[in-house]
């Protein structure tokens, strides 16, 4: 099933267009004609103002998808669920667990905010879809479910743990991505891609039955990636021959430069306010 019309607008990103708020986070508005999706919600502070200035009515959202449970993707959940009371929420059950990032021996909590968890708790049971496998969330719109970790050079992208002591590594198994077929190929939306870009795309290609990539949009979490991972990731993306790559949020400047060098004008850095039509 190919979407007859697809428009994706970046509502929240680390970079922002004129008159919009920038924030360390990500949120996309996906308009597929009959279905409107909010993909992640940023930290929460920038979402309402940016959506309003972009002419996006959050009350029209049919579906809310959470790519994973970090604070910078889940802070705007209460706003979305209060605005669109019939919204169907899709996420992995792991989004609500405690999680930490370890920096210089100090643990910083990066879990979903408590008011976001409370908003999820208030959802009617029929509106909440815990996702542990690949599925369609609407006609022609697929959600990956947990992504197999197959490459030997990709990792979650940082010192992430499930406890303050740093004893239990967090593989971020709740990492999910959206994919949508168009006449020109697949459009894939990722939150932070903690499963790895290559693992994610390989899984999407298997699920969709095609490896023709029209566009890849979202955070690639290559900020702390080593040289080998960057080189192999860029080489794999080049072999996919995407028509458009939109790195956002946590991609990192070095990765952005390498991608641009390899893919030239097919790489367009993301920012809040940018829109793409397919």
Structure description:
The chain is an alpha/beta fold. The chain has one domain (7-277): Metallo-beta-lactamase, Chain A (4-Layer Sandwich). The protein has seven helices and 16 strands. Strands 8-5-4-3-2-1-16 form a seven-stranded mixed sheet. Strands 9-10-12-13-14-15 form a six-stranded mixed sheet, covered by helices on one side. Strands 7-6-11 form a three-stranded antiparallel sheet, with no helix packed on it. α1 (47-53) links the parallel β3 and β4. α3 (77-83) runs parallel beside α4 (114-121) and α6 (227-240) runs parallel beside α7 (253-263). The longest helix is centred in the last third of the chain and has 14 residues, at 227-240.
CA(first)-CA(last) distance: 15 Å
Per CATH, which architecture? 4-Layer Sandwich
Number of helices: 7
For CATH, the homologous superfamily is named as: Ribonuclease Z/Hydroxyacylglutathione hydrolase-like
Binned, the helix content reads: 10-25%
Total strands: the figure is 16
Order of adjacent strands in the largest pleated sheet: 8-5-4-3-2-1-16
N-to-C order of helices and strands: EEEHEHHEEEHEEEEEEHEHEHE
Query: Which structural class is indicated by helix and strand composition?
Result: alpha/beta
Number of domains: 1
The major β-sheet equals: 7 strands, mixed
Radius of gyration: 17 Å
Beta fraction of the residues?
Answer: 15-25%
The gross shape turns out to be: globular
Question: CATH class, anyone?
Answer: Alpha Beta
User: What do we call the CATH topology?
Assistant: Metallo-beta-lactamase, Chain A
Low-confidence stretches: none
């Amino acid at each position: 099933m190919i979407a007859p019309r697809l428009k994706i607008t970046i509502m929240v990103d680390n970079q922002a267009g004129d008159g919009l708020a920038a924030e360390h986070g990500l949120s996309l508005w996906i308009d597929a004609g009959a279905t409107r999706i909010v993909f992640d919600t940023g930290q929460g502070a920038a979402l309402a103002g940016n959506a309003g200035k972009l002419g996006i009515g959050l009350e029209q959202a049919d579906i809310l998808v959470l790519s994973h449970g970090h604070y910078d993707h889940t802070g705007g959940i209460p706003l979305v669920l209060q605005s669109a009371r019939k919204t169907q929420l899709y996420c992995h059950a792991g989004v609500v667990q405690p999680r930490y990032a370890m920096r210089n021996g100090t643990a910083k909590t990066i879990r979903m905010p408590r008011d976001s968890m409370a908003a999820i708790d208030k959802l009617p049971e029929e509106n909440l879809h815990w996702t542990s496998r690949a599925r369609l969330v609407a006609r022609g719109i697929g959600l990956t479910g947990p992504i197999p970790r197959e490459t030997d050079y990709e990792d979650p992208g940082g010192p992430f743990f499930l406890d303050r002591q740093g004893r239990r590594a967090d593989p971020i198994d709740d990492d999910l991505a959206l994919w949508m077929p168009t006449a020109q190929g697949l459009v894939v939306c990722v939150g932070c891609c903690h499963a790895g870009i290559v693992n994610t795309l390989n899984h999407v290609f298997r699920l969709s039955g095609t490896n023709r990539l029209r566009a890849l949009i979202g955070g690639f979490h290559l900020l702390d990636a080593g040289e080998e991972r960057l080189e192999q990731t860029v080489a794999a993306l080049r072999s996919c021959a995407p028509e458009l790559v939109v790195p956002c949020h946590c991609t990192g400047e070095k990765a952005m430069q390498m991608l641009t060098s390899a893919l030239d004008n097919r790489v367009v850095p993301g920012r809040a306010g940018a829109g793409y039509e397919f």
